[in-house]
Amino acid sequence: MKTKWALNELKKYQDQPLIMDGTVDFSESLKKRDKEVLDAEPIQIKGTLENEKDEVYYVNLVLDTVLTMPSSRSLEPVKVQLTIPFSEIYLPALSSVSPESFTEDELVEELSEDILDLQKPIEDTILTNKPTQVFTEDERQSGIMPSGKDWHVIDEEDHDDHPGLADDGEGDPRFAALKDLFKEDNE
User: Fold this and answer.
1) Most buried residue, 1, 105, 133, 148, by CB count within 10 Å?
2) What InterPro entries does this protein map onto (predicted)?
């Protein structure tokens, strides 16, 4: 499926929108841009690209893909299903329409060339919508946290209830000698 056009190619879509329905494979680029992405399945794209008198291009899509990312606990590969709405407005360099004529909620990009390339914006959308934490199904259900000799991980909910971990305001006594180091700055 095509995601890059010369603006001249889009002239024929002034009366009817360009229907986009297909897949693109940006896995290598996504893996290169973000080391947490171990793999990415081809992205299913559905939506429209509308051309308003060669002055404004409206792109409204739904992106579906599956990313493989490392578990936040064990680093085991985890498949993460993503379905993301994508809506952007593009203005050609010589457009008489001003970006200020749109609301704050609308994402408006001014094109520096006579080319509309959606690869980077689609990748950006996927990378900004990937979860910050992922867990395997076993990790989610068991709730068992990693541990080792003289250490163990606890989740946020248990932190406040765990004895000896409450912040008493004193801080680490090993750093007490450093508190007067910048005394002049504190006054």
Assistant:
1) 1
2) YceD
**Tokens coding 96:** 């008489």
CA distances from 122 to 8, 64, 73, 141, 174 (A): 22, 11, 28, 33, 49
Strands, E assignment, 25-105: 39-40, 43-52, 56-70, 77-91
Torsion, Cα 56 62 65 69, to 10 degrees, reads 80
Most confident segment among 41-45, 131-135, 143-147: 41-45
For residue 109, give the 3-state DSSP assignment. strand
Bigger pLDDT: 175 vs 88:
88
Counting Cα atoms < 13 Å in the Cβ hemisphere of 20 gives: 25
